[in-house]
Design a protein that fits this description.
Number of helices: 9
Radius of gyration: 20 Å
Order of helices and strands: HHHHHHHHH
Helix content: 55-70%
Shape: globular
CATH topology: Catalytic domain of cyclic nucleotide phosphodiesterase 4b2b
Largest sheet: none
Distance between the termini: 70 Å
Strand content: under 5%
Number of strands: 0
Number of domains: 1
CATH architecture: Orthogonal Bundle
């Protein structure tokens, strides 16, 4: 996107985030969440880069400046650092922080980014982008100093959804995601009847509805439809991320039906 520019901050943040997630940075333990791991962070970051590269190729105005792009990459790389634990934290996994991980990620970014040359006025935009990844946040209520910062935040949030739902092993990952939900609910003392998902079966059964009625409308509206820039070629070519998610949803629907059929076949016979 930016020929001749040295991506020094991107290279540094990438190396440091990898060190954080592998337990080689300051006092952080290696990441121990089964679903929100380093692979997830890299999938999100790659999706973000491809999306903004597609927007750049499409010639859309206003253009994203190199520095704004680099800060967006930093936000993508740091967006789940709130799941990290310090070495003194010996209870459970980082999944217990699910409800607060966005705030914790902002805290990590706030303390870390100034050490690599991010100015305080730039930091606000990065923190805003991380806040955009909170699935319950109304992004229209977030304040950004510049409209392009809001666009970058929407791109990070879009990549967070697509980066995790498009891999071919997404169905296999859902039990790991449920384990994180269960641990966070237990840690927060959420009563069983108030939990969003009470079993792996329920998570699998509800995922297609979640995609169609929650994620897609959010992508199209709050998140500005930026996923369309992933089309190859833009605007009418196939979208590899959306196509992959649709394939995964078909597999998940079939798996939910299989599990329901197994339950039904195991019901005791009526007298």
């Amino acid at each position: 996107m930016f020929p001749g520019r040295s991506p020094e901050i991107v290279t540094r943040v990438f190396a440091d985030v990898e060190a954080m997630f592998t337990g080689k940075y300051l006092d952080y333990q290696p990441i121990d969440t089964p679903y929100h791991d380093l692979d997830h962070t890299l999938q999100v970051t790659m999706c973000f880069v491809r999306m903004l590269a597609g927007r750049d190729r499409a010639g859309i105005e206003p253009k994203i400046a190199p520095r704004q792009f680099e800060l967006g990459v930093a936000a993508a790389l740091l967006h789940d650092t709130g799941y990290l634990k310090l070495r003194s934290d010996q209870g459970g996994t980082g999944a217990k922080y699910t409800f607060t991980h966005v705030l914790r990620s902002c805290a990590v970014a706030s303390s870390y980014l100034p050490t690599v040359g991010v100015a305080l006025e730039e930091l606000d935009g990065v923190l805003g982008a991380i806040r955009c990844t909170n699935a319950t946040t109304n992004i229209r209520r977030l304040h950004f100093q510049h409209p392009i910062e809001g666009l970058v935040g929407c791109a990070v949030a879009t990549a967070d959804f697509l980066g995790q739902m498009s891999p071919s092993n997404y169905l296999d990952e859902l039990p790991l995601l449920f384990a994180e939900f269960e641990e966070s609910d237990n840690f927060a003392g959420v009563p069983p009847q108030q939990r969003l998902y009470r079993s792996v079966d329920e998570l699998i059964a509800k995922t297609p509805h979640f995609w169609r009625t929650s994620v897609l409308p959010k992508l199209d509206n709050e998140l500005l439809g930026l996923y369309r820039f992933l089309a190859e070629p833009y605007p009418d070519g196939p979208n590899p991320y959306i196509d992959a998610i649709n394939r995964n949803i078909e597999l998940i629907v079939a798996e939910a039906q299989r599990r329901q059929a197994n339950k039904s076949s195991n019901l005791p016979l009526a007298n």
